[in-house]
Amino acid sequence: MVTSIPARRVRFQHRMRSRGYLEVQENGGRAWYPVYFHTGLLAIVPDAGARMCRSILGRRAFVVEPGILALPSGRRRSSLPPGAPLDAPRLNESDLRTRSARFGSLPRRIMLDAPAAVAGPIIGLLWLVVDGGGFAEFLAVSLLAAVTAIWWSAIGGSDPS
Fold this sequence. Notes:
By secondary structure, the protein is α+β, with helices and mostly antiparallel strands. Helix content is 33%, strand content 28%. The protein has helices at residues 93-103, 106-113, 119-131, 135-155; strands spanning 5-14, 17-26, 29-34, 48-54, 60-64, 68-70, 84-87. Strands 1, 2, 3, 4, 5, 6 and 7 form a 7-stranded antiparallel beta sheet that branches. It is elongated and about 60 Å long.
């Protein structure tokens, strides 16, 4: 028999980073799982029922009512994550459609993850000092480092809501 555990979506804002977590009640305490953002998470209401299951890759996943799949993007935390917790509001259908269109857009995601790209030119300069080269190498390394930083932030569970 699969039991349902209470869960809610919480976003933690720490400096310039915003990360979404699924807070669940397990083993007599609370635990936080960072989750990959998708617009379906906006439909999770506070104290929704969640069931633990396995994803395709064999990792832990949660199915939160009403049938939303939440995939953890990191390890379970038993202590409060860093930053200020911001509760997810209860949304009606029209607000859910509006927020899904706004927060699910690619420009919004890039804007949230772009501050990590500041390190790109610094890494490019460091590359020039260590390995030498010209402007083309600087540009290539800076661009590669910036794109990697944006990608790393996105797969880390950034939450644009």
